[in-house]
Design a protein that fits this description.
By secondary structure, this protein is an alpha/beta fold. It folds into 2 domains: 287 residues, Purple Acid Phosphatase, chain A, domain 2; 47 residues, no CATH class. Helix 7 packs antiparallel against helix 9. The radius of gyration is 20 Å and the shape is globular. The two termini are 39 Å apart.
Length: 344
């Protein structure tokens, strides 16, 4: 069944204390080219043994099945154990499944077992958060009511309009993010997207965030005690190493691009990243009080700056969870209101 929009109320008047995991871009396939092959067991274990058992809601934010390369029957056969985990959340009425550009064919499938949505509006009681895949910001989707329009957007394939490979093109990535950023400012809300495979927290990519974080740690260093200084030195060294890797990975003109131009960043845009990273996966965790960008990885496969001890790890057998970024919704709401008004 397809519905353009769903609402999940986790405010004091709704499901108080509810916790929401937002996971995007699993690209489940089959065979040697299956994008989820490396992280599949990690996803199954963390969803079943960490999030489901602890009462979390699960939002699958688009491109869950890779239907541009594989049939749904093939995918369901290959990932039977993962669909059983989805069934757990669905049977408990804790599953929301959003359509992306790689799995939009689900709209034409009969007897698909899960409800499908364009967007999930989360009422936190502090600031509204809209979860949507992000491909809606292509020119075609913008023509039909930017974001919240109904089913007309899903007739791309019959009209022969190709999908946008935003995850592969830096310029298209920034176009998608800028449109979501603009929407969030205009509506004084948070947008939580996927699609580009690039984690964002408070409108900052990892490159920008690391620069701000190094500056913050350096300011704290002079007033810190001896033990705290040792911790700060370890973190600064690890972050500087990651920054150097990012510089080598991306072209300089891409790194210089900013979602907010010369203005102060308004912390209204978030991206859960993807579940198919070479060294683990990222996701967004949201409660009625705060929001976090988390990183999951398996023994021997985590990024060095995480596993060296700069981050606290929650352990689930051979799998580990680290919180990369965290902030309270009260603080974010205040910054969105103040900086958004200045921006307008």
């Amino acid at each position: 069944m397809f519905n353009p929009e769903a609402t999940l109320d986790i405010s004091a008047d709704g499901i108080a204390g509810a916790k929401v995991l937002i996971l995007s871009d699993l690209h489940m396939g089959t065979g040697r080219r299956d994008d989820l092959a490396d992280n599949g067991e990690l996803v199954i274990n963390m969803l079943r043994d960490y999030y489901f058992k602890d009462g979390w809601y699960l939002i699958l934010n688009g491109d869950t099945e890779e239907l541009q390369r594989y049939s749904l029957d093939q995918i369901r056969e290959r990932w039977r154990s993962l669909f059983l985990v989805f069934d757990l959340f669905s049977d408990a009425k804790r599953l929301f499944k959003i359509i992306g550009n790689h799995d939009e064919e689900l709209l034409f499938k009969k007897n698909y077992p899960y409800h499908l949505y364009t967007v999930v509006r989360i009422n936190t009681g502090i600031i509204p958060a809209y979860v949507y895949h992000g491909h809606q910001s292509s020119r075609f989707y913008l023509k039909y009511n930017k974001l919240m329009g109904a089913g007309v957007r899903y007739f791309m394939k019959p009209f022969g309009i190709k999908n946008i490979a935003s995850a592969r093109s830096p310029h298209k990535r920034f176009h998608v993010e800028k449109e979501a950023y603009k929407f969030s400012i205009e509506n004084s809300c948070l947008s939580i997207i996927g699609h580009t495979h690039r984690p964002l927290f408070e409108s900052l990519g990892r490159f920008d965030y690391i620069k701000f974080e190094i500056e913050r740690l350096c300011r704290e260093y002079s007033a810190a005690g001896e033990d705290e200084r040792c911790r700060i030195e370890i973190e600064v060294h690890a972050l500087a190493g990651e920054l150097a890797k990012l510089k080598r990975k991306e072209r300089r003109d891409v790194l210089r691009q900013s979602l907010y131009g010369d203005d102060l960043p308004i912390p209204c845009l978030f991206n859960s990243g993807c579940a198919i990273g070479k060294k683990g996966l990222t996701a967004i965790e949201l409660t009625g009080a705060d929001i976090s960008l988390v990183y999951w990885f398996a023994d021997g496969h985590g990024r060095k700056f995480i596993s060296r001890g700069a981050y606290h790890l929650d352990n689930l057998g051979p799998y580990h969870r680290a919180v990369l970024n965290h902030d309270s919704l009260e603080d974010i709401s205040a910054k969105v209101r103040l900086l958004g008004n200045a921006h307008r």
